[in-house]
Amino acid sequence: MRKPAIGIFSISDRIIVENLLTVQLCYARGADVVYFTKDDINYDTNTINAQVWTVNGFVREVTEFPHYVEFGGGAGDYRKLLADKTTIIDDYKLTKNQVSDFLLTTKFAPCIIPTVHTHNPVRVLSCSMMYDEIIIKPVEGARGERINCLKVCDEGFVFTDTEGVVKALNYQDSLNYINELYNGKPLIIQPRMKFLNKDGRIMDFRINVEKNGKGEWSTVFMIARTSRGSIVSNISAGGYVSEAKKTLEIDFGENAQSLIEKFTEIAKDLPPLIEEVSQCNMLSLGIDVAVDAETLQSYIIEVNVIPQVHYHKSAYVSTKADYFAYLTKQIHNND
Hints:
- The protein is about 30% helix and about 30% strand.
- The strands form four sheets. Strands 8-13-9-10-11-12 form a six-stranded antiparallel β-sheet, with helices on one face.
- It is an alpha+beta fold.
- It has eight helices and 18 strands.
- It has three domains: about 5-90, Rossmann fold (3-Layer(aba) Sandwich), CATH 3.40.50.20; about 95-110 and about 195-305, D-amino Acid Aminotransferase, Chain A, domain 1 (2-Layer Sandwich), CATH 3.30.470.20; about 115-190, Dna Ligase, domain 1.
């Protein structure tokens, strides 16, 4: 019974397009990759009833657990169950908070926005008194959900959400509002920065990096995200994306080249640092960066350890297939 090089795991019986494309590209590039779901695992025999892509489509083959397994998001329990049977290829052990704390000890410390982690509404309100305005967002948030801007006013506090809804509340009502909205969940509190383009709209940049066919980190794509609102640039809340380099040249003119160089440095040097401190395998990262319109200082907003890939998906899948082909060769060379 053979032991495949790489397995792509899914908790769903329905294969998503990204995984199907990855399997097909891996086949074309000589990577030894199988696909399996939670129902294909036999814990008694330590085998899987894998799906293998061929010229005739998928065929079934019972195999040992692969050398490496990519789990993707939403498979936490199965990561734990299979941790002693395989090597997890995307074994992300650090939270966003831990990544931010770690980066404060590196050369990227000046690029980190001052951040407070709390679930206490009283602490949130006290933070609002330290800055002109603060941003409140849940640690486990996605797509810009439940993000609020908060500032102090004469009568109390003013909250503004991503839809532009404004609430002016006194101290007690503010505490109640925070409790109702976040239900005691951990929050990220940051001063509101002036991440603006030349038209005064919120703008940031997403850098997606991934292991390539040489086993090295590489930039898959870099895009600018410009908002329709005034709080976040998250595209799910409206707005548009554009090519990062051209956008920097339009909005920052003669300063664009130095900003591009800074983004390139972040994309090159940050992933190995995170992988080293976490002491685990990583496959891809989504790094959100922005530029203060007044000081031209670059900031790292957050690092997404399981980034969603909505743009340039073909390039993302192609780079992953190259990396899986590289791992296949490494395994065969060691056999």
